[in-house]
Amino acid sequence: MRKINKNLFIFSLITSFLGISIISIIYKFTPAFFIHTVYYCQFLIDSYSIKIPHELSFFISLFILLISFFFLIKVFMTFIKIKRMRNHLIKNEIRVNKVLSLAQKIGLKNKVSVVEDTKPFAFCLGIKNPHIYLSSKTVSIMTTKQLKAILLHEKYHLERADSLILFIGSLPELLFPFLPLIPTFLNRYKIEREIEADKQAVLGLGTKRPVIEVLKIFLENSSVSPSYISSISSVGTLEVRIQSLLDKTTTYPKIKIMDFLISIISLSFIFVSIVIPVQATEIHAKNQDAIMICPENTKCMNQCKNNEGFIYKSDMSYPYTPVR
Prior knowledge:
Layout: H1 6-34, E1 37-41, H2 42-48, H3 56-91, E2 93-94, H4 97-105, E3 112-115, E4 122-125, E5 131-135, H5 136-141, H6 144-159, H7 162-175, H8 181-205, H9 209-220, E6 230-231, H10 238-247, H11 257-275, E7 279-285, E8 288-294, H12 298-306, E9 320-322
Parallel strand pairs: 1-8, 3-5
Antiparallel strand pairs: 1-9, 2-3, 4-5, 4-6, 7-8
Helix pairs in contact: 1-3, 1-8, 1-11, 4-6, 6-8, 6-9, 7-8, 8-10, 9-10
């Protein structure tokens, strides 16, 4: 029976909840943002003792539009960064027969490229057609066995489409910056994937020594890689993986109390937005489109259902107050 990845399960659970929540909130509140007039029952207003400004729905709509626009821009910029990075790598690609011969022996023909660069790195990049890239610096400082360890490691990522998985996993991080638990669990999941790739390299070599040597070399020449790239040289994972290979124990970064509290408060706010009881109906009368929103109050609910009294009056005993 296949072991369930705990960090992936928790991460998937949070992101699934967020996805369903956002869809529910949009479905629930969006109609009120684009209708000509919205009427709130005064019982609702009085119960919270707040004054609803006429511009409320405009600012809420603007906020949602800005969040959506920000998310789309971030996704678009991520695609642009990946494309530019790949174009840069292809432009600086060089032929190293030793690496190409080694790649062919382990089943990576036409899947490995060496790039002219003074920084040591090795990673798998690409969403649709993933490809393995090594820098010329990496090739120059590694032995043949160490290079084989790198290729076996990256082969694991390539065959399991980890670049695509990490890219999809980074989207909730872009959309929900107010939930710091998301990048925390994404990082823990990334560490687990790197550890599994290390194990695959050890299995292919028959010894873990070359893999440990490679990780130590990259640790001494650390480089930071984006969260959507599967990289053996990712600095944030190296120490944990070396420890895992040496004594078979994995110590993940601890969850910060403040991050936990902020995330819980944010999730609670989202949950309340979904479950808060709201009765609403759309009405069309006298060339006017409007929505009536009422609380769990018999008088307001009955008038809401019967579409009575939607024309605003100055009489404060009138049960509905327009927002716009």
